[in-house]
Amino acid sequence: MTASYLVRRLGHAFLVIFVVSLIAFQLGEVIGDPVTAILGLEAPESARVELREELGLDAPYVVRYAAYIADAFTGDFGMSYKAQRPVADVIVERVPATFELAMVALIISLSVGIPLGVVAAIWRETWWASALMTVSIIGVSLPTFVIGILLIFAFSVNLGWLPSFGRGDTVMIGGWSTGLLTPSGLAALIMPAISLAISQVALVARLVRAEMLEVLRMDYIRFARARGIKDRVVHFRHALRNTLLPIITVSGIQIGYLIAFAVVVEQVFQWPGLGTMFLSALTESDIPVITAFLVLIACVFATINLIVDLLYAMADPRVRLSKG
Amino acid sequence: MTPMIALRGHVRALSFKPFVLFASIILFLMVMIALFAPWLAPTDPYDLATLDLFDSHLPPSWMSGGDARYFLGTDSQGADIMSLLMLGLRTSLTVGLLAVGLSVLIGLTLGLLSGYFRGWIETVIMRAADIQFTFPAMLLALLIGGLARSMFPVNKQESSAFFIVVLALGISHWPHFARLVRAAVISEAGKNYVMASRLAGRGHFGILFRHVMPNSLNPVFVLATMDIAFAIMTEATLSFLGFGMPASQPSLGTLIKVGYGYLFSGEWWVVVFPSAILIILLVSVNVFGDWLRDRLDPKLR
């Protein structure tokens, strides 16, 4: 891998994190007054000035931004106005719930979506492959929260099989609370994970099919067929291997979508993760939580993009050698 | 080819795909219902004087306890669900179309500028687009919607909701259009006729708007059609989460949010009907958009 490519991608990742942290920090300046948020509207002026100094709000903007970033590196993101606890603590205890939900949904969407896309591309002329594509359009059109509500209506309200909210019982393993080891935790995970995965399955299937069709049209596939190589070998050894490259990108995009829509699913199922935390922070203008969430999300997305770009460049020399 | 003949060709192509044809008819009907909703709706659910609490919580008319006047039942205020659905459809479509319009406007302007002038203008605009692309548009719309709301005083939040939602959706999706337009402009601006009109003494903006823009519009049109589904879905999501349209001016998403509260008391009709309408609307927009893309621009996949 050329060094300049690596430097360019790293530079981009840092630029993203820098710009987002700058904007996120700026939010505190524009929205709501933390002093009013803590003391209420009725507080006397002297108490306000005192708190303002105590919080360091009287220092110049650049100084406060620098201090915020310096603190952030030590894991200090300030205090949540609402919870009156360190933001870092609130975030750390909510990461496992969101992570487990997103990972299970990712596994479902890739393990179902990729095979569907591959078979739909190989047997594209058959009636069931085009039926599959029609179904996938319906799948892409289903809003996540509506799927969740309809699942709750069917399996919680009518049949009473699955819980409609919460995470069930969790087990602590070295500071990580997992719901994957208890029966009630697994039962609680089923519907949220499916709601999150359904439209992603359809999306992955469509993307993989499009990529595979592209590959199947290429000359080397036609030459392979002309040499008399069996269809099965052409499809799965020659074509699928080159389709796997774009799938790396797809997985990267997937994780982004999953994190975004986890916010919605968590709200439907009252899942105690980062999404519900972010939404209640938005409702209550809890700026330190919003800012920290944004910085965290920017780091996650920038890292995912970086990894995807690097994997892609390792697999395909054309990417790293061109100016991109 | 005159527009009329071109249209006839599209219509003929449509009749070969029964599912697409069916979706297009549904879409057309829904647009008509949305357009004439205030006159089509059996009652005015916002006129509090006509609401009767004795009529509240009624199931659809075909169920026991249903009332023939309220085909799809009533909500907790005694408002007719069917009227709410028609007006909600109208709100959802209006917000969706305006939001896409705003995205196109921003994306087209910035795309034209960066594709035509290149240099530092292009660097700044495309870098901004890259950074925004790092985030899923849904999350961004939610963030803009949520934050813009808290900038308004509580008594202004309901009346400003419409503009905030359109703004949030519009801003969250402009980079797609900007990229598309920039690429089209770069290929267009290198052609001889642009050179010729520059030699003939035409100014930058004359060339940009008279020559380059009209020739870059086709892919924009296709993407805009696909984008309407995204805008409607995102608006519904925002409204469901409480950062979109208020209950006084509900979209389909708001109706689902309100109805969700009654799901556990057995009043399924308050939430299931708006959900079904939303799904049908999104499926038909997507099916139609997908078909249109294949017809107009097979490369844009």
Protein model, in words:
The complex is a heterodimer of chains A (324) and B (301). By secondary structure, chain A is mostly helical. Chain A folds into two domains: 107 residues, no CATH class; 180 residues, MetI-like (MetI-like fold, Orthogonal Bundle). A two-stranded antiparallel ribbon of chain A has the order 1-2. Chain A is globular, with a radius of gyration of 24 Å. The two termini of chain A are 14 Å apart. By secondary structure, chain B is an all-alpha fold. Chain B has a single domain, classed as Orthogonal Bundle (MetI-like fold), CATH 1.10.3720.10. Chain B is built from twelve helices and no strands. In chain B, helix 4 packs antiparallel against helix 5 and helix 5 crosses helix 7. The longest helix of chain B is centred in the N-terminal third of the chain and has 37 residues. The model of chain B has no long low-confidence stretch (mean pLDDT 81). At the A-B interface, helix 1, helix 6, helix 7, helix 10 and helix 11 of A face helix 5, helix 6, helix 10 and helix 12 of B.
Brief summary:
The complex is a heterodimer of chains A (324) and B (301). Chain A has helices at residues 3-30, 34-39, 45-54, 61-73, 87-122, 127-141, 144-158, 183-216, 219-226, 231-269, 274-283, 287-315, 317-321; strands spanning 171-173, 176-178.
